[in-house]
Design a protein that fits this description.
Helix content is about 45%, strand content about 20%. The protein is α+β, with helices and mostly antiparallel strands. The longest helix is centred in the first third of the chain and has 30 residues, at about 50-75. The protein is elongated and about 110 Å long.
C-alpha cells in the first residue's frame, strides 16, 4: 500500500481493514463504558451499601469491557489458530520476563476478589499501611491512611497521629503485597474489635473501687453486649468460636514492683474508638478524683546520702 507516493512496508489492504475494525471496536467499547459510567453517576450512592454496589458495578463493567476488547482484538488479528498460538507464546514469554510485578499484582487483584480478602470501605493493614480502602484497582489498592495507636508508634512508616484517625495521606499499595505479607482486616465479617485501657493504682488505694469505676465507664460508653442482635451473636459464636461471655467488659489485675496494673477489656465498634475512649477517660478520671484515688507513677525514694565534707578557705 502506498501513501502520498511512499510505499508503506508491511501495510496492505487487509491490514488496513483490520486496523479500521480495531479502531471501531475500541470506539464502541469506549462509548459503552462511558454510557454505563454516566448512568451510575446518576444513581444515589450516598449510603455505604449503595456506594459499594456502585463501585463493584464499575469494576464488573471494566472487566467485561476488557474481556470484549481482548476477544475483539484476537478475532480481528488472529483468525488463523496457528498464528494465535505463536502470538500467545511470545506474549506470555515477554510478560513473564518483563512484567513480573504487573502480572503478580493483577493476580493479586483476582485473589482479593475470589478470597474476599477485603473490599472498598474495609479498614485494613496492608503493606505496612493502616487505613480504609477507598479504591481497588487491577494493580493497586488505594488506602486512606490512619494513625497508629501508642503501642505501635514505632512501626514503619512513621506517622504523627497518635490514634486510629485519618492522617490525610492517600497511599497506594500494589496488590502483589498479599502474596508477601499478611493482610489485617478490622471490619470483614466481625464488626467489633477488642480494646483495652490500662490504669496503674497504688497499693494503698481502694483497688476494688477503682475496678468498679472502670467497669461502670465501660458499660456506659462501650458496646453493650445485652443490646446485640441474638442472631448475630449466634453467628459469631458459630463462625469464630467466640464465647458469649467474651463480649462483657472485664478487668484483669497484674502485680508490678510499683503499683497494681488494672486492665479493662471491652468491645468497641471498628470506627470511632478514639472518641469513645476519650469519653471513658474523662469519666474515669472524674470518678477517681471524687473517690480520692490517684493514678500511680514511678517515684524514687532516697534512703541515704554519702557524707559530704566541706572546708572553708579564708
Amino acid at each position: 500500500m502506498e501513501l502520498l507516493g511512499i510505499r508503506l512496508v508491511g501495510l496492505n489492504a487487509t491490514t488496513a481493514h483490520k486496523v479500521l475494525l480495531t479502531i471501531g471496536v475500541l470506539l464502541v467499547l469506549w462509548l459503552l463504558r462511558s454510557a454505563v459510567t454516566a448512568a451510575l453517576g446518576k444513581v444515589d450512592a450516598s449510603g455505604d451499601r449503595a456506594s459499594r454496589v456502585a463501585f463493584w458495578t464499575r469494576q464488573a463493567v471494566s472487566l467485561i469491557i476488557a474481556a470484549l476488547a481482548v476477544i475483539g482484538f484476537v478475532s480481528i488479528w488472529f483468525d488463523d489458530p496457528a498464528h494465535l498460538t505463536t502470538a500467545v507464546g511470545l506474549v506470555s514469554a515477554g510478560l513473564a520476563f518483563a512484567l513480573q510485578k504487573v502480572v503478580t499484582s493483577l493476580a493479586g487483584y483476582f485473589v482479593i476478589l475470589r478470597g474476599s480478602t477485603f473490599t472498598v470501605g474495609d479498614r485494613i493493614t496492608m503493606g505496612g499501611v493502616r487505613g480504609d480502602v477507598v479504591a481497588l484497582g487491577f494493580f493497586q489498592t488505594t488506602i486512606m491512611e490512619m494513625g497508629e495507636p501508642p503501642p505501635v508508634q514505632s512501626a514503619e512508616p512513621a506517622v504523627w497521629v497518635h490514634s486510629r484517625q485519618f492522617t490525610g495521606r492517600i497511599v497506594t499499595v500494589t496488590n502483589s503485597k498479599i502474596f508477601d505479607e499478611p493482610v489485617y482486616n478490622y471490619t470483614r465479617d466481625f464488626p467489633f474489635i477488642w480494646e483495652e485501657m490500662h490504669l496503674p493504682i497504688a497499693y494503698r488505694d481502694d483497688r476494688h473501687k477503682a475496678e468498679q469505676i472502670l467497669l461502670e465507664a465501660a458499660k456506659k460508653h462501650a458496646v453493650d453486649p445485652e443490646l446485640l442482635d441474638p442472631k448475630m451473636v449466634a453467628r459469631l459464636e458459630r463462625d469464630f468460636r467466640v464465647k458469649r461471655e467474651d463480649f462483657a467488659p472485664r478487668t484483669y489485675w497484674r502485680l508490678t514492683d510499683n503499683w497494681l496494673d488494672l486492665t479493662l477489656r471491652f468491645i468497641a465498634h471498628d470506627h470511632g474508638t478514639r472518641g469513645m475512649k476519650d469519653a471513658m477517660s474523662r469519666e474515669v478520671l472524674t470518678q477517681l478524683e471524687a473517690a480520692g484515688i490517684g493514678i500511680a507513677s514511678t517515684t524514687l525514694e532516697i534512703t541515704g546520702l554519702p557524707e559530704v565534707k566541706a572546708k572553708l578557705v579564708p
